[in-house]
Design a protein that fits this description.
- By secondary structure, the chain is of the alpha/beta class.
- The chain has 2 domains: about 15-35 and about 260-360, Aspartate Aminotransferase, domain 1 (Alpha-Beta Complex); about 55-260, Type I PLP-dependent aspartate aminotransferase-like (Major domain) (Aspartate Aminotransferase, domain 2).
- About 35% of the residues lie in helices and about 15% in strands.
- It has 10 helices and 14 strands.
- The strands form 3 sheets. It has an 8-stranded mixed β-sheet, sandwiched between helices.
- α2 (about 60-70) runs parallel beside α7 and α9 (about 300-310) packs across α10.
- Pathway: Cofactor biosynthesis; adenosylcobalamin biosynthesis.
- It comes from Paraburkholderia denitrificans.
């Protein structure tokens, strides 16, 4: 029997209810930059009302369309990447698994709960934190000899580190020779498809997770895909069960994956927006890292900065294990102007607080 005694809540962005209660600011007035979701997502087409009366059609062409879009041999549709994460421990042999210290927070609890021994790693960008981790993950260097599996988010969330297919496939080869598996979470890779290893997902010991929540802005649809070899696909298909994705969500996701013109335009727009955000934040913080959908910065004053911005109704995502903030993209010019003005005022407030602390 599973033991839920020590189950813990994993914090995520998008928790506007908490922010509204804490600061007494009406929820609808917030500028929510706490997630990395495209604020100008795919224009959802009308859905036939009859769709709500029918059970979802698991035998439609959604998975074939997804496989073609990702360049994979097959695709398993699941209720978001989160659903796949909970299934992974059941399809991997027990062994030591490496998971980033600063990465998406649901992986470590899922494997720890399933009695895997979890080794936390840091990348060379956070090598100064090596004392809090088991090893430093560096391209071109071998993995620890007793490591069975590795989970890698590429680009990393929130650290924004990127890994090339050559580096990833090198680590996969190491693990495959041990009978292990490399799990690649590509939730934020849609803007940079050249980094994807989806086309190699038919290889034994390689599992790729994709999502339509971030780039396509369809987080509410809760649709993701597992790209893997036939054995893992069968196992996870059994665990998933029937009707895991609603009929309307299947229709919307199908449209998004087929609209290559919208995808191409969105890649260009998001690349420019990501650069713009990094430049804006670079006026106030050192070492800003970014993807096309979010910026990450390490700063010991992260808590103070989050609080200062929240007092102006702007919500960001704060991390504690490596102190820093993640900023998502504003949706339009008024939101960009609002963020710029708030940063200017918050900077004065944060610096003033710092001076007061020194005087005290």
């Amino acid at each position: 029997m599973l033991d839920f005694t020590h189950s813990t809540h994993v914090p995520h962005g998008g928790n506007l209810g908490e922010a509204a209660r804490r600061y007494g600011i009406a929820r609808e007035t917030w500028l929510d930059l706490s997630t990395g979701i495209n604020p100008n997502g795919f224009p959802v087409p009308p859905v036939d009302a009859q769709t709500w009366l029918r059970l979802p059609d698991d035998d439609d062409d959604l998975e074939a369309i997804a496989a073609a879009h990702y360049g994979a041999a097959r695709a398993l549709a699941v209720a978001g990447t989160q659903s796949a994460i909970r299934m992974l421990p059941a399809v991997l042999p027990k062994g030591r698994i490496g998971i980033g210290l600063l990465t998406y927070g649901e992986y470590a609890p899922a494997f720890e709960h399933a009695a895997f021994f979890v080794d936390r790693f840091v990348t060379r960008e956070c090598a100064d934190m090596h004392g809090a981790a088991s090893f430093v993950l560096e391209p071109g260097k071998p993995l620890p000899v007793d490591l069975k599996h590795l989970v890698l988010v590429n680009p990393n969330n929130p650290g924004a580190e990127r890994f090339t297919p050559e580096v990833i496939l090198g680590w996969h080869k190491e693990l495959a020779m041990r009978g292990g598996t490399l799990v690649i979470d590509e939730a934020f890779i849609e803007s940079t498809p050249e980094l994807s290893v989806a086309k190699f997902a038919d290889r034994d010991g390689l599992i790729v997770l994709r999502s339509v929540g971030k780039f396509f802005g369809l987080a509410g649809a809760r649709v993701g895909f597992v790209l893997a070899g036939a054995h893992v696909d069968r196992a996870m298909r059994y665990l998933r069960g029937p009707w895991s994705i609603s009929g309307p969500a299947r229709i919307v996701t199908r449209s998004a994956l087929l609209d290559t013109a919208w995808q191409a335009q969105t890649r260009i727009r998001l690349a420019a927006s990501g650069e713009r955000l990094a430049c804006l934040l670079g006026q106030y913080f050192a070492g800003v890292q970014h993807t096309s959908l979010f910026c990450w910065l390490r700063d010991e004053r992260a808590s103070r900065w989050q609080d200062a911005l929240a007092r102006h109704g702007i919500w960001t995502r704060r991390f504690e294990v490596v102190r820093g903030l993640r900023f998502g993209l504003p949706a339009d010019e008024p939101e960009w102007a609002r963020l710029a003005a708030a940063l200017d005022v918050a900077s004065q407030e944060a610096n003033g607080q710092c001076v007061r602390n020194q005087q005290d």
